[in-house]
Amino acid sequence: QGNMAFAGKYEFEGDENYDDFVNKIGLPSDKIEMGRNCKIVTEVVQNGNDFTWTQHFPGGRTTTNTFTIGKEADMETMGGKKFKATVKMEDGKIVADFPNYHHTAEICGGKLVEVSSQISRLVYKEKTKKTN
Length: 132
Prior knowledge:
Layout: E1 8-11, H1 18-24, H2 29-35, E2 41-47, E3 50-56, E4 62-68, E5 72-76, E6 82-86, E7 88-90, E8 93-97, E9 101-108, E10 111-118
Antiparallel strand pairs: 1-2, 2-3, 3-4, 5-6, 7-8, 8-9, 9-10
GO molecular function: lipid binding
GO cellular component, one term: cytoplasm
Subcellular location: Cytoplasm
């Protein structure tokens, strides 16, 4: 199990497919606007498998998640929704399932790269029975 050094302060550099993603996970429009191209600074404090992960938003708002790899922790989304998750380390990436999406974070070329992908949601209705 890899244990990459994540500690540091990282300033937002760019995003891909932001609007599509935040709409799919149901983020309120005020939070979407707040997050769009804003200079979020992510600060990571790491002590072995213990992490404090803080996002500093313009205007002084912060979101902090404290977790230990492999143990369930109380977490909060950037939209303020509280939930429980067990954060894992897979191939040097931090991996967590948020309520509506799967999230990974890794260090690539000295940059913090976070990828959030929507968890597929399939809905089936009961098939009507044919009566002959």
